[in-house]
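so im writing up the methods section and need the Dehydrogenase/reductase SDR family member 4 record in one place, dumping it here so i stop losing it
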Amino acid sequence: TSVLGRFTGKTAIVTASTDGIGFAIAQRLGQDGAHVVISSRKEANVNKTVDMLKEQKLSASGVVCHVGKGSDRAKLLEQVKSVHGRADILVCNAAVNPYFGPMLGTPENAVDKIFEVNVKSTFMLIKESVPLLQAGTNPSILVVSSIAAYHSMDFLGMYSVSKTALVALTKTLAPELGPMNIRINCLSPGIIKTKFSSALWKDPALHKQFLKQVPLGRVGLPEDCGNVAAHMCSDDAAYMTGESVVVSGGMPS
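--- predicted struct ---
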């Protein structure tokens, strides 16, 4: 638990934040003093997560939001605006991977879904959040990409391409957001122990194969990402924008 208080008085929006990396980021921002707005597609998960954070004496509220739906994004931002009047931190973590197999076998509907959620929705939410962020203090955006952006993984071809696009999105938006005093950076996790990546670490043979590529010799934990994310969103990283930080236990990127 951190008692840094570096986000005291700040409001942070974290998408797909009811478990895994999104939850770890939201929890750490809350531990550092932020009011965290939890969002996810399922109301039961949102409520459960908000209750869990409140039990930890953290400040949290929640909004149901499917980032692929413009009306849901509008509702999320409207709620933040009406309660807080601004946003200081936006973490874009929502992503899908409906297909696991050779890239040339990817069905068209899977391609559409991957780009719709992972790339288009991320861009649209950033674009729509700008007025709220401009009202914030030293505002910061964090886009969650993946080591797959740099080092395409077997059976995750189109997902890897979408994550490469997020690195490019971050680099392309940085010069446009900079004059507005909004920073934007990218976090690229390696193999982290989450439900989302369970195909990679639950199978003992695959797990062993992946660990050969990890100099630190272990699968990462969501907190490994939460801690770095909090630093990148804080004023400690005030002179950093347009960058991507890889958190992978040393896996080559």
